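Possible regression after last week's pipeline update?

I re-ran a chain I had predicted before the update to compare outputs. Posting the input and the new output here so someone can diff against the archived version. Not blocking, just want to make sure nothing changed silently.
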Amino acid sequence: MTMVKLFWEENVPEIAIQSVRVALSECHQEIFSEGIEIQALGWWKDENSYHPEGHLHPHRSIEWYFQNSYSQERRQLESETPLTFLDWAPEKRESPHLTVVVLTRDLYRDGYSFLFSDSGRSSIFLSTFRTKTLQENALQELTKSFVAHEYGRIIGLDGNPLKEGCYQSKDRHEKYCAMAINDRSSPKDWIRVTKERMALGRYYCPICKKLTEP
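New output (post-update):
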């Protein structure tokens, strides 16, 4: 999958958007040794996104995918439903691609109090809600780690029924690997992995690389 469509809500820090683009390019290059095309689309909607009666037409805006997923009680956005809708969007049948959405709203799914990021089959959500107060460099590098982890999940680095990934490997994976942590990892774990991968200049470990080999 060498095409990415990148969307973001208004008020997402510019440094976060830039970090997502850089991380996607670097991760794809590290694993597949080739470039990736990224279309930057902002908070996209077409000119006919709204029905005359005021509701959103299906699939004609990025907001449509999220419109029924916000929990007023929790004040968070449930991620699983819009991820599924995006994974099965009609345009993906015509032109397969990876969808990445950067959000200012806080994310959750059943069983989790919050998520920094989440992913489906071909879609990734990233939230700046809990990182927006960080200093610019910390926001930049943590965002890259979240991207690397979710991108790794998309391409199968978190486990494969025919091979062993970082999560299931009998061999201990490298501490810096973006797939060495999971959705239940603490902020301290994310910071540790981020510092170690920055020191080494790579996102993934050799086990991850083997998962993508024929």
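Follow-up from reviewer: compared with the archived run. The radius of gyration is 17 Å. Marking as no regression found.
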